[in-house]
Design brief:
- This protein is mainly alpha-helical.
- The protein contains seven helices and no strands.
- α1 runs antiparallel to α4.
Length: about 190
């Protein structure tokens, strides 16, 4: 990771710590301006909209819970507190999306190419194992296999887990050999 990216990451982490402890709207505005400066030109609006949408969803759930509690206990809702909560969360989300989009998640954690290849393979294997699990469930249903007791459930689960483990080990062995043949250090 370059020196500029390390410096940007350091300031980002310091800014996040400061934002998470503050309710000052001026600081939220400054952080939003910083996020706009950090974000790539073509993606500023997209990143800001993603941050606001995600924050709006989760903040609305928090606000709905507080509103229900205030109605139940007959107390007043602290609207400025929820406004600060929303602004803080939206600002942190926008700043995070901007930094990750600018630097890249692999660069931030200094992944080597072999480790990056491992993650790609891992994610593709997760999807194939999920498909295998669905196939096992469908095969068990079609054969009328039922697990009525706890003992039968544990037995069935152990059979499926063993089969999935053996398939995943074989799949990873084949993938490792393919990577070695292409020059990756696995």
């Amino acid at each position: 990771m370059s020196r500029n990216n390390k410096l940007l990451l350091f300031f980002y982490l310091a800014f996040i710590a400061l934002l998470s402890a503050s309710s000052d709207f001026l600081l939220f505005i400054l952080a939003t301006i910083a996020a706009l400066l950090i974000a790539p030109k073509a993606r500023k609006l997209l990143l800001a909209l993603r941050a606001v949408k995600a924050t709006l969803f989760f903040s609305s759930l928090t606000f709905a819970g507080a509103l229900a509690a205030s109605l139940f206990f007959a107390t007043a809702v602290d609207y400025p507190h929820f406004a600060a909560l929303f602004c803080r969360a939206a600002t942190i989300a926008f700043l995070t999306l901007s930094v990750v989009d600018r630097i890249g998640i692999f660069t931030i954690f200094s992944f080597k190419s072999d480790l990056s290849m491992f993650f790609v393979l891992l994610f593709t294997k997760i999807e194939s194992l999920q498909k295998e699990m669905e196939d096992f469930k469908e095969a068990a249903r079609s054969r009328g296999v039922r697990a009525d007791s706890m003992k039968e459930s544990l037995w069935l689960l152990s059979v499926i887990a063993t089969a999935l483990l053996l398939k995943s080990v074989e799949s990873f062995r084949v993938s490792a050999e393919a990577l070695k043949s292409r020059g990756h250090n696995v």
